[in-house]
Each structure stands twice: as C-alpha cells, then as structure tokens.
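Good morning C.,

I know you're traveling, so I'll keep this short. The sequence:
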Amino acid sequence: MIKKYWREYGVWYGIYFFLSINFLLIFYLYHLPFSYFQASFIFNLTLLFLVTLYFYWKFYQKCKDLHHFIYVKEVEAIKKYTLPSDDAYQAIIQQTLQEHSSAIHSYKLKDKHYQDLIKMWAHQMKVPISAISLMAQTEQLDKKEVQEQLLRLENDIARLLNYIKFSQNHSDFLFEKCRIRSLFIDLIKKNKTFFLKKDLSVTIDGDWEIISDKKWLSFVFSQILDNAIKYNKKGGHIIITVKEGRILIEDTGIGILKEDIPRLFEEGFTGYNGHEHQKATGFGLYMVKKILNNLELDIKIESQIDKGTKVIIEKEE
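The tokens, ready to paste straight into the viewer:
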C-alpha cells in the first residue's frame, strides 16, 4: 500500500524537498542564520508528517472502498468521494455499469430466445422420431415412410444448424458460378419422397447462370420448396420459371392471408397457416430474406387464398 501511495503522491514530496534545498542554498548564499532555516524546516517537516498521515489514511480508505466495489459492485461505497476527478471517475463507472447491465439483459433475452428455439425445434423433431419408433414397435416398418421421416428430420436439423450459424454471423459465403436449374433439380431429387406422397407434379422452365453462393442459394430454394410442398393440395402442381435476373416459383396451394403477407419475413412469425397446420417454426422465410439480402437478391411473395402462392426472386436494383 505504501508503494502505491508513493507512486501517486511521490511527486509532491519531491517538490517539497527540492524547494527545501533551494531555500537552504539561498540561506547559504546570502549568509543568513542557519538556525532560522532549521526551525522552519523542522516545523514544515512536522506539518508534512501530520498531513501525510491524514492523506495516507484517506488513500487507504479509498483503495479499500474501491476494492470492495470491484468485488461487491456496491456503488454507495464510492459515492462519498466528491473531488472533481472522483466525480468524473464515478460518471464513467456509472456509465460502464449501465452498459454492462444492458449487455447482460440483452444476453439473457438472447439466451432465452435460443432456449425457446431449441425447445420448439426439439418438439418438432420428436414427431418423425416418434413415427419411426412407433413403426419399429409395431413391426410395421415401411421403407418409404421411414425414408420420409428421416428426410424430414434431416431437413429440420439442417435448418436449425443453419439458423444458429447465420444468426451468429458465422455464415461463410463462397461466391462461384452456379446454375439455378441444377440446384432445383438436385433439391427435387432429394425431396422426391414428399412430392410422391402428395402426388405433386413439378415443372422447371429456363435457366440462369449466376455468380453466388451455391450452398446458401440451395438452402433458400429448399425453404421455398418445402413451403410449396407443405401447403400444397394433394395432386397439386409447382411451376418453377427461371430467366436471367428472375426466378418465379408458383404453387397451387392453400394460399396466404392478405394481412399475413407483409409480416412473412419477420423472425418467428408463422401466420394463420402456420398455426392452423402446426408445421411452421417462423424462421424459414426470415432466414431466406436475410440470406438473399447478403447475396444481393430480393424476394417478393404474392398469394391468394385457395389459388396458390407466387415467390419471386430478383436481382436487387
């Protein structure tokens, strides 16, 4: 503690002794009685000693209160110090505490959001697992049904992992030449089980070679196709029209309420169809919009109840 005190106040003692030597030199040069200097020096030294005791006690108390504040975060411990410099430090500390409190609150909200998200996705992924488990227990394993449930589980896990990755800004974009038609064909082959189950026909017309991220584009198209399959009618149709600078995906599904369309890209929004069919998480289109923005593409949705939905993806102007 003494070393710390000396580091803070040592310069003043240095000035005092410098002035004392200066006065001694003056007395010597002018041949003044040394006894006068000696009396004055002893008096000032005694006064300096008493002042030092007082300031050291204040310094010790201040260090102790600051140490207490660091570990207990009790602001009252430092409010009694009212020097101008202390006021400035206290203002900084108050601001830092507020920012820290705000950051903790934000972190807790984000943590709760992730917990709710994981719970929701876990509940959704339990459905295909339960279906496979039931088939196994009843010894009625249907190859196509197992394949469908496994594909649904794979898609849900991929969606969850991509959402976490994207929301934490860990999305690794790699731009290269890719053909839109090929991406759709690969996705249709992958999801053919779902197309066959609902007896859906699909048509792809045109092509577009674009420089973009193949992985994230494929994820975007998979979300849109997933919705087109999910909310389509049995025996319905999906038409994909591709041309330079524009992609149109049409379905003959149940459509979307007019009042829900403006909110489709909000995080967590499911709308009437999502609540009614209990199949939506509300994160698919939110991620689609964010990813397309990063890829300098725009998305619009047009829909009519019982007539179907159109999803339009275009290059940003």
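Safe travels,
E.
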